[in-house]
Amino acid sequence: MASLVVDTSVLLAVLLNEPTRRALVNATEGYSLVGAPSLPWEIGNALVAAVRRKRISAADVQQAWVSYQSVPVRLAHIDAGRAVNLALESGLYAYDGYVLETALAEGLALLTLDLGRARAAQKIGVKLQEF
Fold first, then answer.
1. Strand pairing of 110-111 and 31-35?
2. What is the mean pLDDT of the chain?
3. Which of 23, 35, 36, 114 has the fewest beta carbons closer than 10 A?
4. Are 100 and 121 in contact (CB under 8 A)?
5. pLDDT tens across 28-66, in order?
6. DSSP letter string over the chain?
């Protein structure tokens, strides 16, 4: 089975039933999913931030977290130093660097909804998965 790197933006869109949900689920069918090692913390942080912005409730966070735990995503082992350097070179955050390094280290395409991350990925030769 082919593998594909997914990031927080993709998983959150699916977990929170965003309009892109169906297209993202379709785009990942037949793939084994790989995430940056920081993925669980990023998901948790984004869910708590959504509560603070009054976008979702605490109950929604609990439901989304349970759903997240059922998604079969293998967390990659990466070189964090290279990831930080990628982030610095691309003008992005360290978390973006972790995702980019995951795609590079695994030699896989990236599925993301983050336009800045997508542009940085293309600049360093990471293929983007269409959805």
1. unpaired
2. 97
3. 23
4. yes
5. 999 999 999 999 999 999 999 999 999 999 999 999 999
6. -EEEEE-HHHHHHHHTT-TTHHHHHHHHTTEEEEE-TTHHHHHHHHHHHHHHTTSS-HHHHHHHHHHHHTS-EEEPP--HHHHHHHHHHHT--HHHHHHHHHHHHHT--EE-S-HHHHHHHHHTTPPBPP-
Domains of the chain listed by start with CATH number: 2-123 (3.40.50.1010)
What's the token pair of residue 96?
A: 């973006």
Q: What per-residue confidence (pLDDT) applies to 30?
A: 96
Give the pLDDT score at 53: 97
Residue 80, CA distances (Å) to 5, 29, 37, 77, 120 in order: 17, 29, 10, 9, 17
Query: What is the residue type of 99?
Result: V
